[in-house]
Amino acid sequence: MTDWNAMSDEAFRQAVRADLEANYPEHLRYPSRRLRWQEVREWYLDRAARGWTAPGWPQAFGGVGLTPAKQLIYIEEQERRGVARGPDQGVVMVGPLLIRYGTEAQQQAFLPRILSWEHIWCQGYSEPNAGSDLASLRTRAVADGDVYIVNGQKTWTTLAQDATHMFLLARTDPAAERKQEGISFLLVDLRTEGVHIRPIRNIAGHEEFCEVFLEDVRVPRENLVGSPNEGWSMAKALLGFERLFLGSPKLARQALGRLHRLAAARELYRDPGFMDQLARLELDVADLGEAYEGFAEQVRAGQPLGADVSWLKIWATETFDRIAALIVASAGSAAAIPGPQSFGDRSVDVLNLYFDAMPATIYGGSNEIQRNILAKQVLRLPE
Amino acid sequence: MEDRQDEHRMLADSVRDFVRADATLSRVRALRETHQSFSREAWSRLADVGWLGIRVPEAAGGLDLGVAELAIVAEGLGRGRLPEPFVEVAGFAAAVIRSGDNDVLARDLLADIASGRRLYAVAWQEDSQDASPARPLCTVQPGGAGPVLTGRKILVTPAEADAYIVSAASADGIALYRVAADAPGLDVSAQALVDGSRVAELRLHGVPVPDGDRLASPGRGLEALEHGVAEAQVLASAEMLGLSEQLLALTNDYLATRRQFDRPLSAFQVLRHRAVNLYIQVELMRAALRQAVRVLDGDDDLAVRQQAASRAKARAGSAAMAVAREAVQLHGAIGYTEEADVGVHLHRIVALSAWLGNAAWHRRRYAALLPRESLEAVS
Ligand SMILES: Cc1cc2nc3c(=O)[nH]c(=O)nc-3n(C[C@H](O)[C@H](O)[C@H](O)COP(=O)(O)OP(=O)(O)OC[C@H]3O[C@@H](n4cnc5c(N)ncnc54)[C@H](O)[C@@H]3O)c2cc1C
Q1: The domain A239-378: what is its CATH number?
Q2: Helix (H) or strand (E) run with residue A123 in it
Q3: B140 backbone dihedrals φ, ψ, rounded to 5°
Q4: Which of B28, B53, B290, B295 could form a disulfide with B114 if both were Cys (CB 3.0 to 4.6 A apart)?
């Protein structure tokens, strides 16, 4: 078996790149929306067969056991190739959760099925009345013999319609003094009686997130992760270096590429007004890339990320948004036309990145919440 | 002046009542599902209250009022997000038709518009990257049995018009013709825009146009078009103002009612300021529109009208896009859904700001039309 970590970074990068170039299907590159499981299934099952579902998990649990540095390279090369994101909550969230806090029985029951994609997970945190203020969540889990009976509603659950399972936060102790206390982590099989999933169409007309209703859903007690009422601190502890990816320059770079395509087709390079705006955005992305490398360096050195990484998320998502807006502004009357269209001999989708950029400033902790974090924890402004 | 202000207030009130009595947003959604731009039934209700004939002479059954009145209606219909193509037909097409030089035909067409009997769409655009009507490739040429039109037009709105007003180049200049939707030699294909409205691509393969169908002669066609385009740009700005006012109202309501962290979102000072920023954008749009309406109702000089139109549309295009984007943000995830009203307004703003020149195009034209002295005075 290859010892990937023993390879030089450069050799590893070349190996990953060559593999993706040879094997990742052309028609799935840079998809214009979040793809459904049916569309990416073949690719991810192929990865699974090669043992590459979970590059970051320890080998003892069936992962590749890559060091953080190598994981970053792996992710960067996927971004470079435009690999479609899969329903990765099992790999990114549930795996690390169970590896850290799960019982052996839970690990045996769930980890192999994440690796094989037999189970597909979605994230059940947000509720209609608990968005930014997640700790006010109301979904209740009441112990009754050997089960919890769960009642409540989750919402904005990305791709719940493709998932078999949901990891959710539910209130187990309503009497707790602070609302962050009394919340537990539960693993729920979505095929259980009492679960109803309704897809919600987004502003671009795609069904990418859902409402999930839970009515007297009986969840085995052994599906509670960690200690009861400790869910909040576990959820926070799980926010590891994944936060770096919310600040990845990938989307902004992809949008810049799109802008260049449009500019070439429309001969905008001759327009000094356009060039000024383009140069401004190029600089925004270049400096984003450099800042990202600074944080990535911390991850490579095995250091935890601080609250300051919040600024990266703000800058990455707002730069993406500005580029998407300039794409729209550079398309003339064609900006009203949805879907790919031809500009000369080039095909360009003008609007999809505009709609993609919109929620990025809302999810993953809205940019307003990120600014609150920075003001409090980095600038230490007194309240 | 006092009188007109009162009349304008009453007109604005009646537009508000009109849209309130109509389930406009659910109609927008239903029309999208059934691939239609508008409902003929709602169109005839607009005719019944007289608004389709605001710019139509009394002799043709209209009210013979000004751009001011048309803009009030456009703003109110935008606020209510009425799906019907009011600005496109009662504004744009009517203005082009009025500015032609075939009085007999114009009278018939304007009477059709005022009565709601038929809808006309101006078919001027051929290149999505060119917002000027001055360079059509579509030609009118003598044929065996009279002149024929040959060429292609795009983004003709509404696609479901009963007839199109087509611009065509001849050796003597640009002329305008009425072409029925079912004319021989005409292929029409329709496509939905981001707001669900439908635009047509016309392919004209030698469409015969008898003299009686010529709305404007080659000496007059371009000017007629330019006058109509300027008026439509101002009316589109008015509709965007209405859409933005509604987005501001929706956002304020949401901030006041949505609670997080045990208080309404409106209690967070940063969000209060963000709402105020939206309000300022709306008021700027209103100011730019007001001057444009004044110019269009008072000055016949085309360059002056174009500059005023560009000022209004440059402002409306950028301000409305900014308001729409921010309204989504302040709503959080719910603002990103199709079922939220925010999106229905946002889609229309994206479509209108791209129509007849976007903000960047209008800034450029505005600068080009500045008198030289004022440029020098700045430097
Ligand atoms: C595309 C998408 C996918 C998602 N996928 C998932 C998922 O899979 N699972 C899941 O659990 N959740 C998911 N979410 C939900 C996401 O986590 C929430 O949208 C987010 O937490 C914000 O909550 P909210 O939408 O209720 O907005 P709200 O919290 O109601 O916020 C509304 C506005 O007020 C601002 N605001 C709120 N509080 C403050 C404050 N204290 N100070 C200043 N401003 C404030 C916000 O920034 C926002 O602009 C998804 C959301 C989106 C858009």
Answers
A1: 1.20.140.10
A2: strand A121-124
A3: -115, 125
A4: B53
Complex-level ipTM: 0.96
Contact A136 B359 (CB under 8 A): no
- Residues of chain B in contact with residue A131, where contact means CB-CB under 8 angstroms, are 260, 332-333
Pairing mode of beta strands A195-201, B146-156: unpaired
Closest alpha carbon within chain B to A332? B129
Question: Is the minimum distance from the CB of B44 to ligand 1 under 6 angstroms?
Answer: no
Question: What residue type is assigned to position B16 of the chain?
Answer: R
pLDDT at position A238, please? 81
Boundary-marking domain end, from B162, B195, B218:
B218
Q: What is the pLDDT of residues A297-346, one digit of tens each?
A: 998 888 889 999 999 999 999 999 999 999 999 999 999 999 999 988 88
For B13-62, give the secondary structure using H, E and C: HHHHHHHHCCCHHHHHHHHHHCCCCCCHHHHHHHHHCCHHHCCCCHHHCC
Q: Which of B338, B355, B363 should one mutate to test binding to chain A, selecting the residue with the greatest count of A CBs within 10 A?
A: B338
**Distance of alpha carbon B149 from alpha carbon B208, whole angstroms:** 6
Using a 10 angstrom Cβ sphere, with 0-12 exposed, 13-18 middle and 19 or more buried, the burial of residue B31 is: buried
Q: Which pair of tokens denotes residue A217?
A: 């859903």
Domain total in chain B: 3
Report d(CA A10, CA B125) in Å as an integer.
Answer: 53
When pLDDT is averaged across residues B147-163 and rounded to a whole number, the result is: 98
Show residues of chain A in contact with B329, CB under 8 Å.
358, 361-362, 366-367
Q: Nearest Cα to B163, choosing from B147, B186, B137, B190?
A: B186
Tell me, yes or no, whether B61 and B149 share the same domain: no
Residue B135, pLDDT > 80, answer: yes
- Ramachandran area for residue A67 (φ above 0: left; ψ -120 to 50: alpha; else beta): beta
Domain boundary at B218, B237, B256, which? B218
Sign of CA dihedral A19, A25, A29, A35: negative
Within 13 Å, how many C-alpha atoms sit on residue A145's CB side?
A: 2
> What's the confidence (pLDDT) of residue B374?
67
Q: How far is the CA of B332 from the centre of ligand 1 (A)?
A: 5
Please give the residue range of the domain that contains residue B168. Answer: 122-218
Active-site residue, from A39, A242, A282, A318 = A242
Architecture of domain A121-236: Beta Barrel (2.40)
**Structure pTM?**
0.96
What would the two tokens of residue B280 be?
């300022």
